[in-house]
Amino acid sequence: MRPRGHLPKPAVFSRRLLSLAVRSVAIASMSFAAAFGFLSGATSPGAHYDPHTFAIGVSALLGAACGGIGILISRIRQMKIELHDMETRLDEAADRNWEISEAQERTKSFFETQGDVIVRRGSAGAITYANDAFCALAGRTREDILATAFALPVEEQGETTSLADGTRIYDQKIAAPAGARWIAWREVAVRAGSASETQSVGRDVTGRVLAERALAEARDQAETASRAKSRFLAMVSHEIRTPLNGILGMADLIGDTPLTPEQAAYLKAVRTSGETLLSLIEEILDFSKIEAGRIDLAARPFVLAAFVEEAVELLGPRAQAKGLEICCYVDERLPVRVVGDAARLRQVLFNLADNAIKFTDRGGVSIIVEPDTQPDAIAISVRDTGIGISGDDQARIFAEFEQADGGSARKYGGTAWA
After folding, report:
1. pLDDT digit string (tens) for 34-53?
2. Which of 65, 154, 249, 288 has the maximum number of C-beta atoms within 10 A of its C-beta?
3. Backbone angles phi, psi at 50, to 5 degrees
4. Phi, psi torsion values for 127, nearest 5 degrees
5. Residues 366-391: b if buried by 16+ CB within 10 A, e if exposed
6. CA pair distance 265, 281, nearest whole angstrom
7. Which uninterrupted H or E stretch holds 371?
8. pTM
9. What stretches of 7-127 show up as alpha helix (H) in DSSP?
10. How far apart are CA 351 and CA 356, in angstroms?
C-alpha cells in the first residue's frame, strides 16, 4: 500500500476559511463600532456621566465580544474536525486508487506474459489492445496494429459455436511467420468504460489438431484394412472349404472299400482330423463373430472316452516321432455321455497336448479326465515330463500374445495367440 502523506486542502475548505475570516472581521468591526459609539456617547460634553451605566455598557460590550469570539472559536474547532475527517477520507481514497492502479498494472503484465493470444477490438473493428503473443503471431509490432482493423491471415476456418452467454468459439488455421498454427478462439463482448468491445482469446492447439488428424487417418486406414480382411476371409472361406470337403468325401469313399484294421484306423484318424480342421476353419473364417468379439458355444451330448481317445490317436504320430509315450485315463466314475461343445473342447485339448509334446524331450505326455470338485463338472488335465513353467511365467502366459520364452533366440518355436 502507498504510504499516506499530507494532501493539499480542497477549494471547499478554502472558501469556508475565507467565510470564517470575513465573519470574524465583521463581528470584530461591529463590536469595535458599538464600543466606539458607546464610549463616544458616554464621553461627549453633552452627556451625563454615570459610572454605573458606563460599567454596565462596557460589560455588555465585552460580553457580546466574548460571545462572538466563543462562537468563532467553536466554529473553527468544528471546521478543524471536519477538515481532519476529510483529509482522512482523502488519504483512504488515494490508497484505494493506488491499489486499483497496481491491480491494473498486474493484470496488464499478466496479459502480456501469458501464452494465450489476446486482442480487443472496438465497435468499428479497430484494435484497442493486443498482447505480445498476438503481435508475435501477426509478425508485427503493437504500434503498427493499434487503432487499425488488422486481421490475421486465415488459411482454414472451423465451425463456429455460440454459447448461451454470447461467447463464440471457433478454430482457425493462421498463416504465421514461423509456420501455420491452429488457434482455438473464444470471443466475448466486454465493457470498456461507456463503450463495448469484443475481446478474443486464442490458444495454440496445433499439436492437438495434428494429433486428431493423424488419429483420424489411422482410423480410416484401420477401417480400410478391416474391410479388406472381411473380403479376404469371405473369399478364402470358400477356397479352403472346397478342397477340404473333397478330402473328406474321398475319405468316405475309401471307407467303403475293403481295408485292413490298421488302414481303417488310419482312415478314421484322417476323417476325424479333417472334420476338426473343417470346424476350426469355419469358426476362424466366421468374421461376423470375430468382429462382434464373441463366440457362441454349442452344447451337445458326446461320448467322453471316445473323444479323448481320438485326441490321443491324432497326436500319437507326433509323439512317436520324438520318441515319447502318450496315453489317456478316463475315470470310471464319470458318465459315458456328457454335454458340451466338443469342437471347442477339442481345440483347447489339442493346443495343450501339442504344447506338451513340443516342450518335452524325454518321457511322455498324459491326458487325465476325472471329476472336478464342483458338482456336474469334469476336470481335464494334460501332464508331461518336459521343461515346465516357472511361477512368474505362469502368472502371465494366459495374457494376450504372451509366451514363457519371448526372446528372439528361444529354443522352442510357436505363436502366442490372443
Report:
1. 666 655 655 555 555 566 66
2. 65
3. -125, 110
4. -75, 125
5. bbebeeeeeeeebebebebbbeeeee
6. 24
7. strand 364-371
8. 0.40
9. 11-43, 51-113
10. 9
